[in-house]
């Protein structure tokens, strides 16, 4: 898997996640679930494109989870801006959105999105991916 090479040089360090989600309920649910995964730290949250970009420029993360529709701006434009910044470009990018159309998936890939999850039905897969990434970083032995 390509993520393994991305995280090789950070073995033993927490997996830093930044979450861009405008729904308070969804954001709290995601943070709660991410906090239950060993070796994962949510280092920042934002509900708007501009604020997310400012925070990411100040403090990069390992994994960026982005919703498409935001209170101000949108996740696709955020991803486009990030793809132009080398400081953030190596971040593993994930879209988690209700807008799970093929068009958004294709545009996401264009801007370096590694995974796309449908918010209405694929939360378990998202958290399983993060768990696997964290486990690889912590060098877990056996199935997690």
UniProtKB/TrEMBL annotation:
Top-level taxon of origin: Bacteria
User: Is the keyword Transport in the record?
Assistant: no
Q: Where is the Response regulatory domain?
A: 16-134
Q: Which residues carry this modification: 4-aspartylphosphate?
A: 67
Asked whether the UniProt record includes Phosphoprotein among its keywords, one would answer yes
Give the matching InterPro entries: Bact_response_regulator (IPR050595), CheY-like_superfamily (IPR011006), Sig_transdc_resp-reg_receiver (IPR001789)
* Matching Pfam families: Response_reg
- Keyword annotations for this protein? Phosphoprotein
Bilayer-spanning residue ranges: none
What's the name of the protein? Response regulator
- Which species is listed as the source? Herminiimonas glaciei
